[in-house]
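User: quick one, sequence for these tokens?
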């Protein structure tokens, strides 16, 4: 299968880079097991919890965070897309944080 793929095809891809932001957000908002939190380094992270027993006090469902104004759609877009990159000098440092998401 891999040999039959055209040159330049994705053989490695990160989940947050797989979909356009609007589709990613729709998917995340539809889930009852995806929670959002803010780490000590002020990074937005997602946590997948099978039961509510594993949810920390700093986490809530993404849709609840949006509805309650804890985070805005624009802030999520800044955290999850290259729109969050400040400038060309530090874009790679910033870009690496896109994939620094915690899944528990």
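Assistant:
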């Amino acid at each position: 299968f891999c040999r039959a793929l055209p040159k330049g095809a994705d053989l490695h891809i990160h989940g947050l880079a797989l979909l356009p932001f609007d589709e990613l957000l729709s998917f995340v908002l539809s889930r009852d097991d995806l929670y959002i939190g803010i780490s000590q380094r002020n990074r937005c992270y997602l946590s997948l919890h099978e039961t509510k027993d594993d949810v920390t006090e700093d986490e809530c469902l993404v849709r609840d965070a949006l509805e309650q104004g804890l985070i805005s759609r624009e802030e999520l877009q800044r955290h999850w897309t290259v729109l969050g990159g400040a400038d060309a000098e530090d874009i790679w440092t910033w870009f690496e944080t896109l994939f620094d998401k915690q899944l528990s």
